[in-house]
Design brief:
Elements lengths: L10 H8 L12 E6 L2 E6 L5 E5 L6
Antiparallel strand pairs: 1-2, 2-3
The structure holds zinc ion.
């Protein structure tokens, strides 16, 4: 049996889920991994609108 490990979704996981998807704000954009104001983010490569950004609350 595989053991499922529950864990908090990391910033990378949330961003990766959107990377490669279509931009919601323009027709031709594709979301790419980038940073926005120092946070991990998925940003449109066309209009540069961040679809999601993740604040790194775990950083001590
Ligand atoms: Zn776009």
């Amino acid at each position: 049996m595989e053991q499922l490990v529950e864990s908090e979704p990391s910033a990378g996981t949330v961003v990766d889920a959107l990377v490669g998807g279509n931009c919601s704000y323009c027709e031709d954009g594709t979301l790419v991994r980038d940073s926005y104001k120092g946070n991990a983010a998925a940003v449109c490569d066309c209009c540069e609108t961040p679809a999601v950004q993740v604040w790194d609350d775990d950083r001590a």
